[in-house]
Write the structure tokens for this entry.
Amino acid sequence: MSDFSKYKFGTKAIHAGAEPDPTTGAIMTPIYQTSTYVQESPGKNKGYGYARGKNPTREALQKNIAALENGKHCICFSSGMGATDAVIKLLRPGDEVITGDDLYGGSYRMFTKIFENYGIKFHFINLSDADNIKKYVNAKTKLIWAETPTNPTMQIIDIEACSKIAKANNILLAVDNTFASPYLQNPLALGADIVMHSVTKYLGGHSDVVMGALVMNDDKLHEQLYFILNSCGANPGPMDCFLVMRGIKTLHLRMERHCFNGRKIAEFLKTHPKIEKIYWPGFTDHHNHAIAKKQMRDFGGMISIVLKDADQDKTFKIASSFQVFSLAESLGGVESLINHPATMTHASIPKTEREKAGVVDNLLRLSVGVEDVEDLIEDLKQALA
């Protein structure tokens, strides 16, 4: 296996983890569509016994994602929520977690509806000021779970500052890096212990796979999380792993266009008379813009807007009137999507809680794709007219 750690991002995206098939010389990693492996004698095999534990296609993908995050280990899961679930299973009843008040609705639902029932306490706070974390740290705090940029109000969390607090108190820091992707941000280099990706989004990039991943450097942490994967069974199939490997080969090219289009659209929307507020970390007046500039390579293609003087009916009408943007869940694909978080991705969060975090009924989230930006701007003009 070649060592691609010394190469730049685009080279790693295409080559890391991928070796020509030893049987045929095929340049693409084969899809090992098998549930079990023949053993030479009981307990003696070629490293593979049963596909829930290991699969060669999955292992190639894991090496690839680890290389992109400059990490030692990667474990792929059947979804981003499966990956998140594994991290929380590191904890015990009575443990406490500090996390953001502007959080993906699925994470909030899992934390409050599943794991609070097992005696784990979650503090949902504003993480955009890292010093705020110190108020909630105590002997029971075992994990800080941070998204940056956050979903959907695009808060920027200072990963390095969070890491210093975590390390001083022997707390794990896990960072959901989905919105940034490894192309824009590498949390391990900033002190995070675990990086989580909803691989479904930018890594896959084509809206045809559901998958999650965890990346880490610590051997013991990798062993614990792999044990959870193998024991609980949230493993992805080989066909999905193949599709993600194919998607990652163009990640750097896609992200360049996502960022270019995102900037053009953010600049267009910033002065639009129908927009009350816009969330995009590339603006110099964005809270923590300086931190975003320091820890990210660009500002991405995710934008949220609050419509001026729009009730829910008017918001729904606008959200349903796009012709190029599609009204749909998810993000990070080549096609542009529009989303109404209050009724879609964040519907599980109580109204008072989500509004406190800025997720109001007249907020729309844009996942800017890689279409011609002029067409996207024209679509926005007609939908907002």
Remarks:
- The chain has a mean pLDDT of 96.
